[in-house]
Design goal:
The complex is a heterodimer. By secondary structure, chain A is an alpha/beta fold. In chain A, the strands form four sheets. In chain A, strands 1, 2, 3, 4, 5, 6, 11, 12, 13 and 14 form a ten-stranded mixed β-sheet that branches. A seven-stranded mixed β-sheet of chain A has the order 9-8-7-10-15-21-20. A two-stranded parallel ribbon of chain A has the order 16-19. Chain A starts with a strand and ends with a strand. Chain B is of the alpha/beta class. Chain B is globular. The chains are: A alpha/beta, B alpha/beta.
Chain lengths: 482, 333
């Protein structure tokens, strides 16, 4: 057995020793399959997201390409939530639960088949949340930003916005000096949230422009882009004072080029905050030199499923098709929106992901997002820790490669988000996915974006967000790769 | 009307196969030998020549597939340039290169690669070289008093190589100067460097100026107006410019300044995977014919095809050839 302590415990915070003692007790009692032990890895985590998709103790097995069980198994314990009193029973139950949905349908209600994480239904829930944000917020009684760790978005930090405006204004002055400033100055914000940041940015830009009499503001064409029209409408009201220079456009963050191809090579500044962490990811695992793709299937633990079914008048056997209908039609599925939203919220709160590791023959078998080449992955793996679990941030990569062609030759991209800047950082800390209100949150593989950036002609850098103490946010920015 | 009108050619580079990119990186990391890479280069160049012939081009190149990029191929050959071999992570990166002393005269070895091209095609051929202005923007100068002096020195050395190419049978030589567009204020001395480069070179000479194609995207934007009137001093036969991506508005500059050159007309956008139709190519040629007579037009893509996958580059060339044929037929009546 190999033990992975995946975080830096603070004194008195970890019960790692108790987990080990419990496991040894299971061995002594003959309750742990001796055949499993040599291939068992024990992962001790402290999961930062209070709401996530894991039960406190879980097991994941490796399978071959056909889904046949292999010897490798991982036992994952969230020390933040694992109950010391029930540790032995939970460990024993988890080890016995492998494949339990088939052997003991009573333990959980599976709501989808095995799929790579990037194709999980959690992403449909995520999309539903942003499409029907107002319905969710009305019933929860709070805005989505209240769910953030600091209770507000770093996107709206006035000092950060002021610095961002100053950087942009400096670029404009330099271009203007060389006679290379276009007549129309295009700026784009993708994922507009409440519109607060855009409003702050525009206020600041106008103030600087007027104070320095540069005449840039009237030439500004500021585009608000989001896939949710209700969100765009709300954001537009936040920038009412700048209506003459602002337009909104329905745009999928995964492919801004599709809607904005007429602005190819014309946009001088593109900004995103907390968008990449909310786009689909796959996860890869390397153990003993062998590569595995993480496959998941969403389920509701049996007690949760019973409670949801009872509270919302859905027969237990109807849970899976009813959830599928929710994801297809939204919270109006019962013809009673309030009931639908309540059902949605209850299902989401209880939703867990069962995991298994599907063996891949090599990197050629990895489902790569557009823009990521197998060579890049090979190079990353060559410098990564031998045992590693990491994100293929497929949504972020896809968004990146479909955004940079919009940039003017001297333009740049700025992304505020939670990034893992190097592969080595995957050694420590849980990196998602977690739940943030009704949405999914994930750390973003910055090392991957750096490789993709290099191939598309941009150096990708990460700067810590220095405007709020304790912030985990970084700022990705691009510079031209000559 | 014979096919001497509206001759078709690539600007220089052809689609770089992904496997060759991997091999170049493997060579950089010492995973394969120079001999193995040379063999792969030979195979790739032969395939590029064949593709150009099958597409129906009148003038073919070696696809520039032996080159890491437009700078290093020359920087590593120019005598007196010190190269930091550990300074790039990918083959396509630029080496950190510097000149600290006066550069001696020495051959660059381009003739060998030209002879290889000549061996595998009976079509007319074209050799492209990076111009001195672009080279001095990437090779650090720690010896010459000015950029112009550095550029003229490079031109003097490369001039001998161009003469050797002509002796070996080169008929068409193109000089690439994309950095003009980023540094328009340099144009007067940039043109003087070109004239030093082509002095006594008895070939059909073309000067290619674009807005950059590094990583398949433009490096600058603007209008070709900055070229005029300084460019009129260049002692070349043809100017090769991009119009497909940027539109034809700057064509009128040829008329406005009564430019004496023939025009290499960019009719294929190399920065998009959308494949032009022959009709669109023909329309672009007709727009140019409103400005210049047919005997002063050649037809080519906007720039090199390096960054396009073969399944895009090849049909683009086919559409270009077919579009030129459409116009030729119209002119024949």
């Amino acid at each position: 057995m190999i033990i992975h302590l995946n975080f830096l415990p603070k004194p008195g915070e970890t019960a790692a020793g108790e987990v080990l003692a419990a496991l040894i007790a299971l061995i002594d009692q003959g309750r742990l399959d001796p055949e499993m032990l040599p291939h068992l890895r024990l992962h001790l985590d402290w999961i930062q997201y209070k709401a996530n998709f894991r039960e406190p103790v879980t097991v994941r097995h490796a399978t071959d390409a056909r889904g046949e069980r292999m010897a490798l198994a991982e036992l994952a314990v969230d020390l933040r939530r694992a109950s010391r009193d029930r540790l032995i029973d939970e460990l024993s139950g988890a080890l016995a639960s492998v494949g339990a949905a088939e052997r003991d349908p009573g333990r959980r209600v599976v709501v989808e088949d095995w799929v790579p994480l990037g194709e999980s239904s959690i992403w449909q829930f995520n999309r539903l949340f942003w499409q029907r944000l107002a319905d969710w917020e009305r019933q929860s009684g709070r805005g989505f930003e209240a769910a953030l760790p600091s209770g507000r978005s770093d996107a709206n930090d006035p000092a950060a916005v002021a610095d961002a405006v100053a950087d942009f204004w400096t670029l404009l002055v330099e271009l203007d000096k060389r006679g290379q400033l276009p007549a129309e100055i295009f700026a784009l914000e993708i994922g507009v949230g409440s519109g607060t940041r855009a409003g702050l940015w525009l206020d600041r830009f106008k103030t600087i422009d007027e104070a320095r009499a540069t005449g840039f503001y009237p030439r500004l064409r500021f585009l608000l882009a989001d896939y949710s029209l209700p969100t765009l409408d709300r954001a537009m009201s936040a920038v009412e004072a700048h209506r003459e220079v602002v337009s909104m456009i329905a745009t999928d963050a995964l492919n801004p080029l599709r809607a904005l191809s007429f602005l190819r090579y014309k946009i001088l500044y593109v900004h995103l905050t907390n968008v990449y962490d909310n786009l689909p990811v796959d996860e890869l695992v390397r153990r003993d030199g062998q590569l595995y793709l993480v496959e998941t299937r969403a389920y509701l633990p049996a007690p949760v499923a019973r409670a949801v079914a009872s509270a919302h008048g859905v027969g237990p056997s109807e849970l899976r098709p009813t959830i599928a209908r929710l994801l297809e039609t939204g919270p109006d599925l019962f013809g009673d929106r309030e009931r639908g939203v309540a059902f949605w919220r209850a299902v989401w709160e209880g939703l867990c992901l069962e995991e298994r590791l599907r063996r891949l023959e090599g990197t050629a078998d990895v489902p790569l997002p557009p823009g990521l080449h197998g060579d890049d992955l090979d190079e990353l793996l060559a410098t990564a820790p031998a045992d590693i679990r990491f994100h293929i941030s497929r949504g972020a990569v896809e968004s990146f490669v479909n955004t940079v062609p919009l940039l003017h030759p001297r333009g740049y991209l700025q992304v505020q988000d939670i990034f893992v800047a190097t592969m080595d950082e995957y050694r420590q800390g849980f990196r998602g996915p977690g739940k943030l209100d009704g949405s999914v949150v994930n750390w973003v593989n910055g090392a991957l974006l750096r490789a993709v950036g290099a191939r598309t002609g941009y150096d990708v850098h990460f700067a810590p967000f220095r405007y709020r103490a304790g912030s985990r946010t970084s700022i990705l920015y691009t510079t031209l790769r000559e | 009307m014979a096919t001497q009108y509206l001759p078709t050619a690539v600007v220089g580079s052809y689609s770089m196969p992904a496997w060759l990119e991997r091999a170049k990186n493997d060579f950089l990391r010492r995973r394969i030998t120079a001999h193995d890479l040379d063999e792969m280069h030979d195979a790739a160049v032969k395939a590029a020549i064949k593709d150009q012939e099958v597409a129906g081009l009148d003038v073919v190149s070696d696809g520039e597939l032996r080159r890491d990029n437009m700078i290093d191929y020359f920087a590593t050959r120019l005598p007196g340039v010190e190269i930091d071999r550990g300074s790039k992570a990918s083959y396509y990166d630029f080496y950190d290169s510097v000149v600290r002393n006066r550069m001696p005269m020495a051959p660059l070895g381009l003739v060998e690669h030209f002879r290889f091209l000549r061996t595998f095609t009976d079509r007319r051929t074209k050799v492209s070289v990076t111009g001195p202005h672009s080279l001095v923007k990437r090779i650090r100068n720690q010896h010459y008093p000015t950029e112009e002096a550095f550029a003229v020195e490079i031109a003097r050395i490369m001039n001998l190589e161009l003469r050797e190419l002509v002796r070996a049978g080169a008929e068409q030589i193109q000089i690439d100067e994309p950095y003009y567009s980023g540094f328009p204020e340099d144009l007067p001395w940039g043109v003087r460097a070109i004239n030093a480069l082509v002095d006594g070179v008895d070939a059909r000479l073309s000067l290619h100026v674009c807005y950059g194609n590094r990583y398949g995207k433009p490096s600058w934007e603007g209008s070709y107006r900055y070229l005029f009137p300084a460019i009129l001093e260049a002692r070349v036969h043809q100017i090769t410019l991009e119009f497909a991506r940027r539109g034809s508005e700057d064509l009128r500059l040829f008329k406005e300044f009564d430019a004496p050159f023939t025009l290499g007309l960019g009719v294929v956008d190399v920065k998009t995977h959308d494949i032009e139709t022959p009709a669109l190519v023909a329309e672009r040629i007709r727009e140019a014919l409103a400005i210049l007579p047919v005997d002063r037009l050649s037809v080519n893509p906007d720039c090199g095809l390096l960054h396009l996958p073969r399944e895009v580059a090849f049909p683009k060339l086919g559409a270009m050839v077919e579009g030129a044929q459409l116009v030729r037929r119209e002119l024949q009546g």
